[in-house]
Amino acid sequence: MPITTSGGISPSPSPQPAVPIPSNPGPRATAFTTLYHSALQSTLNAISYESFASCFPLISAQAPQALRAMWQGMRDGLEAFAVSEFELILQERDVVGRLNALESIIADANRRRDAHLASGEASEKQVPAPPHKLLPEPLVKAHLTPLYLSQQSQLNAKLQTVQSLNAGLMSEIHKQREEMASLLAQTEMLVGDAESASQVMSNVQKLSHVTRNAETILNQI
């Protein structure tokens, strides 16, 4: 029964203690170091004395023991350097501890899964299928859908920008058309005024001609 405080609120349960991580290398850490040393030995074995001596034919003929000692020293020095650097990286990156932590996480997950299945709350059919057993189509969708969504959002943003620019251009075009219509109306009005003035001037010229004719007739009387 949980213990209640004076306010009647049950305190939150204490967190479970962390799973202790062993300091000795686990299976994965051991396999990792074994793989490295195996690869290193394969690399060193590729540097044979025969291939090394072929690069120094005169020394190999006159002082083969000295050349072999030089080859052995170089090989041992390279091996010692590679091993020391590997050990330094293991210590700096805490590789063994991290791999052991991974072992603990996997073991805890397996234990939880087994307990969950044993309790009858789930069956083997409800356990998610591993990725290599899935069909190609859902795998492709799972990988490409985030990319497609990202590209679609970018295209939508570009489309909105283009639509906004087009709306601005259309507004500017309508404004220019209105200005052109206003200028055309003013031009037509000016042309009409010019035609009216021309008609008035024509009438004035006719009146002047009639006046001169009248003066001529009066002068003849």
From TrEMBL:
The keyword Cytoplasm does not apply. Residues 1-26 are annotated as: Disordered. Signal peptide: none annotated. GO terms for cellular component: MIS12/MIND type complex; nucleus. Keywords: Cell cycle, Cell division, Centromere, Chromosome, Kinetochore, Mitosis, Nucleus. Its main location: nucleus. This is Nnf1-domain-containing protein. It comes from Erysiphe pulchra. The lineage of its organism: Eukaryota, Fungi, Dikarya, Ascomycota, Pezizomycotina.
